[in-house]
Amino acid sequence: MNKMRYILTIIIFVFYVKLNSQTVYVTESGKKYHAKNCQLAKTGKKGITLSEAMKIGYEACKNCKADKISVANKKEKVKIDTTKGK
What we know:
Blueprint: H1 2-21, E1 23-27, E2 32-33, E3 45-49, H2 50-56, E4 59-60, H3 66-77
């Protein structure tokens, strides 16, 4: 049980670090942050961390859904085998 708790703590920490270090893109005149390939932010975009963008007050672009894509990709990459140790 303690081993499972330890593994879960590590996974949560990794998600937190990855989320805070994810790069999103903003423009000088916009109020939204975007994924790198978003069609709405073609020119004049500057990369900043997701946590910085949120702190400044930017919101996620509804077109590219930069916040949803990153979380979905991270969930796919991490798989936990809960059958070990039983």
